[in-house]
Write a structure and sequence with these properties.
With about 325 residues, this protein is of the alpha+beta class. The chain has one domain. About 35% of the residues lie in helices and about 15% in strands. The protein contains six helices and nine strands; from the N terminus they run αβαβαββααβαββββ. Strands 2, 3, 4, 5, 6 and 9 form a six-stranded antiparallel β-sheet that branches. Helix 2 crosses helix 6 and helix 4 runs antiparallel to helix 5.
């Protein structure tokens, strides 16, 4: 090959290398632009929040019947093949953490809901994300007990700082302190306080959970794609009839002295990124260390009573009240 041919071949090869380099840079730039556009998407583009559970003005019996009918439709032989589905499990009693692995065996559990059932007092609902059962539920309860201890101390301090002639205010603070202390004591002992859970499984698995003693209803929610865009409203075990706007008595705690707000219930938004795990008791111990699960009060996904959307402002997938 002559020197002229070598020069032409070298020029062609050089141009080819340049062309591929330019193309590679273009692909990288387009990829970076696409990623930046996805990160810049506002939350409004994620769609409306889905509500699963019983809503105000609906009868608990009607909700249970509708949920059972929907689960039965998913497990019919003629039903299309369905993959794993999220579901809200409501229990007919408050149970201890130790009973959860058997109760939800075979299903993936994302989180549980707890409440200390004190007579005549409307106590807070606590959402506990779950990695492992029952260890993370116990950890969540211990975290909740610490929160309640702090609340009790703050309420006692407020009572002492309140003028002697403000009898009703002092009584309210003292009652709130007693309630918070009772909740703290119950959570420290791993109380029978769990009354609901969010699980995931095939329709046949969900049906199996629904038949177990202690399970009140399994409400499948195939429309749920993201837990952080879902609001769960499980009925309390003692609830029946029509769900009122305020589902129970609670002491009126004045909050004009400090930042302690009145302890009322609120809709529960689920958390994002909480991996669900199998709760089968036969799966063996997991020796890998996992981060402790925080309680709902430590996570911004759970709205307070003041910033929760009214029922009519959030699209509901629950049936209308009969």
């Amino acid at each position: 090959m002559g020197s002229a041919d070598q020069a032409v071949h070298g020029a062609v090869s050089f141009r080819t290398v340049i062309a591929f380099s330019v193309l590679a840079v273009g692909v990288v730039l387009l990829g970076a632009l696409w990623v930046s556009r996805r990160q810049a998407l506002p939350d409004d583009d994620l769609g409306d929040v889905v509500r699963v559970g019983v809503v105000q003005g609906q009868t608990v019996g009607g909700y249970i019947a509708s949920a059972r009918k929907e689960l039965a439709s998913l497990t019919k032989a003629s039903a299309p093949v369905a993959g794993d589905t999220w579901a809200l499990v409501s229990l007919d009693r408050y149970v201890a953490p130790g009973s959860l692995p058997d109760l939800f065996s075979g299903a993936a559990v994302a989180e549980v809901y707890t409440r200390v059932p004190l007579s005549g007092v409307h106590t807070q609902v606590v959402r506990i994300p779950v990695y492992r059962l029952p260890a993370d539920v116990m950890t969540g309860m211990l975290d909740a007990s610490l929160d309640r201890d702090r609340e009790a101390a703050e309420y006692r301090q407020l009572s002492r700082r309140t003028a002697a002639d403000q009898v009703r205010a002092r009584q309210a603070y003292e009652a709130a302190a007693v309630s918070a202390a009772a909740e703290a004591a119950a959570y420290r002992t791993g109380c029978s306080c769990v009354f609901a859970a969010v699980i995931r499984g095939a329709p046949t698995t969900l049906q199996g959970v629904a038949t177990r003693p202690g399970v009140r209803v399994v409400d499948p929610a195939p429309e749920v794609l993201r837990l952080d865009r879902t609001e769960f409203r499980p009925p309390l075990p003692e609830q029946s009839g029509t769900v009122p706007p305020d589902s129970g008595p609670s002491p009126v705690v004045p909050n004009d002295v400090s930042g302690i707000a009145t302890r009322t219930s609120a809709p529960i938004l689920s958390s994002l990124g909480v991996p669900s795990v199998r709760s089968a008791s036969s799966s063996g111990d997991d020796s890998r260390s996992r981060p402790a699960a925080p309680t709902s009060e430590d996570r911004p996904a759970v709205p307070s009573a003041s910033d929760a959307k009214p029922a009519q402002d959030v699209p509901s997938r629950s049936p209308a009240a009969p």
